[in-house]
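In response to a reviewer's request, we include the raw inputs and outputs for one of the modeled complexes. The two entities were modeled together in a single run.
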Amino acid sequence: MKRRDFLTAATSSFFLPVMLDGYGAKAFSPTSPFMRALAEVAEATDRILVVVQLSGGNDGINTTPPLDQLEVYLRNNFRPGVAIPENRILRLNGQNTVGLHPAMTAMQRMYNEGQLSIIQGVSYPQPNLSHFRANDIWFTASDSNRFETTGWLGRYLDDRFPRYPAAFPTAQMPDPLAIQIGAIPTTTLLGDNTSMAVVFQDPDAFARLVGDKPNVPDTATTPGYAGDRIKFIRQQQVTSVAYAGQIRTAAGKGRNQATYPTNNGLANQLRIVARLIHGGLQTKVYYVTIGGFDTHAAQTDANDPTTGAHANLLRNVSEGIAAFQNDLKMLGVDDKVVGMTFSEFGRTAVANGTRGTDHASAAVQFVFGKHLKGGLIGRSPNLSDLVNNNQLRMQFDFRQIYSTMLRDWFATPTSDANALLFKEFGTLPIFSDIVTGFDEPLFNTKNLRMYPNPTSATLVIENDALANSAGAVRIVDLAGREVLRQELTSGQRKVQMDVQQLPAGNYIVQVQAGQKSFSGQVSVMH
Amino acid sequence: MSLLAPVTRPLDATQAAHLLRRATFGPNAAQIRQFTGMSAANAVALLLADLPVPAHPPHPNGGGEWHGNPFSQMDEGPRTNSLKGWWTGLMASNEAPNVREKMVLFWQNHFVSTFQVVNDARFMYLQNQVMRRHALGNFRQFVIDITKDAAMLIYLNGNGNVAGRPNQNYARELQELFTIGRGNYTEDDVQAAARVLTGWRVSGYRNETSGAINVTFNAAQHDTGNKQFSASYQNRVIQGRRDANAGDTELAELVDMILAQPEAARFICRKLYRWFINFDITAQIEQEFIRPLADQFRQNQFNIKGVLETMFRSQHFYDAAVRGAIIRSPMELVIGTLRAFNQTPPEVTNVAPFFQYTNYVWQRSRELQMDLMDQPTVFGWRPYYDTGFYEIWISSTTLALRNSFSDQMVTGNFRVGSNRLGIDSIAAAQAAADPTDAEKLVDHFDNLLLAVDLTKAQKDFLIDTIMVNNLPRYEWTNEWNEFTRNPNNNTRRMSVKMKLDSLLTYILRLAEYQMC
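The model returned the following structure tokens for the whole complex.
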């Protein structure tokens, strides 16, 4: 290939990877059984998930001090110099079992406004206390004794967008599937073949950087290890060039409206995310990281347990996330965004001798966004019922949160979510009603008919179960708002919905009939 | 055993280049020629030769020594630059190829401590000396010394580990990361080891009035009880002691107990394998390479040099299948590029340009996500242990930055003192055996710069499109000859220089250039 041809190819908006030998020819395995179904349903949603990694193992106990067990928590030999004094613990509306760390006033407001869910005691059976292994378990959603090499969101995106990256960008999905603000790709977004994320620290610099630099034709088909590395690097080159223009455009169009805290690395990252979302990127997953939670020593100041390293970290998390949420609201895009935190483990209930805490299982995690039920999920951790001397008991498996994200947020059919997470985990009551309704057992989708699709006037939903159960059929827009609803009528196995008044676009159809539910996608065209 | 068997035939040019790329931060053309035709035994002996202890790092402002001074918050930034730059200079200087600095880097990424956490450059320098002292020495003594190292006692909180309120941080990483690896000990062993290690104290940390730094054992803070280990260690009990030597005695017993497990030597050999050869430890590699190498390691009382010698002489090391299997780390890429084109650092005594040079190098490496002595976690840099391994070095951003670094080297617009830092492409061509022949010239750069051979189509593109712009290839010969006849004619010079610059820009942007 001539250099000019390469540059032309690289700068055209629908870059054809087939023009570079080695990519176009790359063989992808046939789509997995659930992939097609998944693509049909999930394509319908333009929802965005923001993952905030708190790296190092966050001390959940000081993050949400247990108001109902202050006599244990404040006991002299429990967390001397580390425990937050009673009068400094932030109170939450309608909540007398846990409070918040005093550095988290911003998140206190979010909680009181229903934009924050607090999930207690998140862990998994046989927790591992190695940073590396525990992270890997969280990244891949594997059992403690199993090893997986792909990330849970990597698998999700891989199945939702088959043949990435070879066949991408496409007209329908011109943007990166996932964006990680940072430099080193996370395992969470690792798919079967490659990372599903484009990784950068600064969208403006990124576009300039990958710009229009020369390259050499890729005719090599070196076998073995070297060949694999070559293929991988070239793919990265192609992907970066292919997406640089879209990212530049979105970064140019996007604006921030809210004021973000300064000297806050997490806030800086989230500010970029808000700007890219506002700029119109259809990217489904954003991933940001804040490190420093491995507080073995001096997690509090010597003379004040409410200040110090951990307080600074929690302030950054709280103020960063609150500014982000506020920004999304001012930009009018908060309908389609939800965020979650995770940290590889918690810390010992009893402090060590250096005003610090060591690795331990089960800790608190947060979900934030507009469409939440809010409140506390689970109980205040029992400080008098520790396992292995010094660790909290697990209340929820972290994969219940993942499962909830996949099913209730990304509208992934239950069976597919289960496959992505290797087994059934059910969901937690995180989201408000308008986006839930995927409870077991499912209809057999083969027997449930929904036609015509696409449709311009009416949509018919047909199944025997509709005739003899109470329930409703609802059509929900991509922001999760219910736009049409029809109650089931006894004896009628067919429900007819009039969609003429709905704006053209994709919608989610949710059917609830007694204990059974179904969700699917419909396109309305006029 | 066949994989460990030594090669017997003399090294050819490809093997010589491979050995130098892996065992050092990369060769120049003269060194490849020097090593070609040598026996592997002689070549490896040269690489493993002992080197003198380097002079202390000079202060970037004025050049004086600072390591014995009291701590100074104001001076901490310059001292950090001094140490990072000084070590970078040792890696980049290239008079005689030697494995030492690459091994010191290996160990610094094994026994991680960071500036970020330790926050006292004097401590970091002391630790760097420990690592250089033991880099090719005895692993058992290395583990003992690093356990009592001042920076490590701060980094993993050994300094706060006292009887009654143990801090488990070091005890866990000692087993998980430093000696035996996950799955070979229990949580109870972490707790027992933490108790063995109670009582070590650092003095002089961030002390602004005295330069003295000491590590001592305080028997009063030592847990004198017996320490019961699990079946992973044959239910061994380390007897609690209360004398002044209790710390040393119990530490030695702990290290010996761990190293007595066959898994410990294997764990280190695997890590060396991933540093020098390839990430993929198949069942065959485990059986026929790691296991016998680990056996040798134990039989030689954990002598590190012996392991390296066997590795670098083995047939497997030269197997074409592992050539190009590693993606160069940022330090390997940046320093390797400079060394390949003889852009070695100014004398360390020439303080200002020396630190301009070395700062440039480690800052490039830092933006490529390899910050010297500042790993993101105690695990070290992810590409040496995590899923995906070396590919983790490459993201959309880092790849673009790697390319922009090599572009910068060709353009050469960064100045060090009064000199340009960058590639003199004419000198680079003159180092080839026959620069008049375009094909031989491209082959020369191929062997100097790339771990894998380019295909004919790639070479044709580089010659026909880049060098001669679709004219007949003898046009290059003519141009080069015109230039050598009139070396002072600027037009002639620029004419070949532009073609060579463009050729090198393309070669250094190849995916193949990222590998070694």
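As requested, we also summarize the result in words. The first strand of chain A starts at residue 48 and ends at 54. The radius of gyration of chain A is 24 Å.
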